[in-house]
Amino acid sequence: MFTADCLNINEKGRLTIGGLDTVALAGEYGTPLYVMDETQIRQNCRRYTQALERCYDGRGMVLYASKALSCKELCRIAAQENLGLDVVSAGELHTALQAGFPAERIYFHGNNKTPEEIRFALRENVGQIVADNLAELQTLSEEARAIGRSRVKILLRIKPGIDAHTHDFIRTGQIDSKFGFALETGEAMRAVELALRAERLDLVGLHCHIGSQIFEVDPFVLAAEVMLGFFAEIKARFGTELTQLNLGGGMGIPYDEHDEARPYEAYLEHAVAAIRESCARLGLRLPTLLLEPGRSIPGPAGITLYTVGAVKEIPGVRTYVTVDGGMGDNPRYMMYGAKYKALCANRAGEEASETVTIAGRYCESGDLIQEFTPLQPVAPGDVLAVLSTGAYNYSMSSNYNRVPRPPIVMVKEGESRVIVRGETLEDMCRNDCLRQG
Ligand code: LLP
After folding, report:
1. Which is it for the CA torsion 26, 28, 34, 38, positive or negative?
2. Which of 114, 256, 335, 430 is the most exposed place for a label (fewest CB within 10 A)?
3. Model confidence over 20-30: pLDDT tens digits?
4. What region, left, alpha or beta, does residue 283 occupy, with left being phi > 0 and alpha being psi -120 to 50 degrees?
5. CA–CA separation, 375 vs 347, rounded Å?
6. What percent of the chain has pLDDT over 70?
């Protein structure tokens, strides 16, 4: 029935997370409220690190893609779990450094890093930069020279020509994507040549990321094969054998009971088998393997609690159940038609006998969390829980309508604590400047 091990129902028939009563949490902290379970997050981290250890003798590193949820406490947990970190902006990098995340385990991504961001990353000695385009290679060299850095480790982001967003993944001649260097056009090879020749850049490997919320294993296997094929071409052409292969993130999570929980080990087992086979066939040494899971680390460990307000039944049309949050704290249904499971937290054990549309409090008709979804009968004042909101909710939130962002509360072993404070009304105008006089 649930999408994560941390969720359950107690003797009062209420939803619990990490053993704590969600109705009590809503009472203590108010709603809307993001709640996360630390044990579940750590378990999700360990599934990857243990799988890497088991399948590949630990020859690599799991990087948490912090865009899924960037805050100091998540960075601290990822560091403690021996993960590396993928950041894509000065803001994410700053957050990680503020949390004390070891700079050498940080990978700086982004398809349009500014020169200032590159300088910041170099000054802070981040482990590696994942270069996206030719202009960036130039900027990297210039910034490295400007601050006197002799060697900057880089990866190149490659478009392997595999589109895993489609229902059945396809391999196209050339993928239309703003990210990375294309293989087919020769752009990737040109970038390799430039990077190898650049004085201050140390090209150590290649990166690819084939999509997000992927359930199939085959696209990852194919990506590994395509990338290693390119490693071999590089070796044949320049005599240089790259040492790092970063296969990106994208592993899917369950959003309702129809989605199977993924055995991430299976992704790795198959990818590693393909890597071993390709390396043997192509005469390459086994590369260091990097993975970048984002969603699957915090995603299943988070829920959002709301208070039900107006319930509007439009006969023959639909019933709107309105909550005190919406697109501001979770824009994913509005943006992608994303699927979510909702339930009435104070009657979680009862049958979901109604079919309703969950609407938010923002001034947009499209401000919906889910349409025509099963739910227990609810009335104003009930607590509504939306599951699997730990990733890409807070990180994609906004202040539309000047509604303050909700806090994030972390639960662990029967205790709860705030890890991100909720915004106040004062925060809503803290950057406003009034003309004097
Ligand atoms: N590495 C790179 C280079 C990425 O671009 C991403 C995600 C990841 C790793 C992590 O992927 P994950 O394991 O989370 O699938 N906002 C969208 C998801 C965008 C993902 C962007 N890149 C959503 O809410 O579904």
Report:
1. negative
2. 430
3. 999 999 999 99
4. left
5. 10
6. 98
Angle 368-369-375 (CA atoms, 0-180°, nearest 5)? 115
Integer Cα distance of 118 and 129 in angstroms? 9
Residues having CB closer than 6 A to ligand 1 are 65, 67-68, 86, 109, 209, 212-213, 248-251, 292-296, 332, 392
Contact call for residues 60 and 291 (beta carbons, < 8 A): yes
Give the CA distances from residue 366 to residues 264, 358, 361, 399, 437, in Å, rounded to whole numbers and listed in that order.
Answer: 34, 11, 11, 16, 40
Amino acid, res. 207: H
Give, using CA atoms, the residue closest to atom 18 of ligand 1: 212
Burial class (CB in 10 A: 0-12, 13-18, 19+), 176: exposed
Across the chain, mean pLDDT equals 95
Q: Is 55 a catalytic residue?
A: no
* pLDDT score of 174: 56
Q: Look at residue 173 and tell me whether its pLDDT is greater than 60.
A: no
Which of 248, 325, 329 lies closest to 291, judged by CA? 248
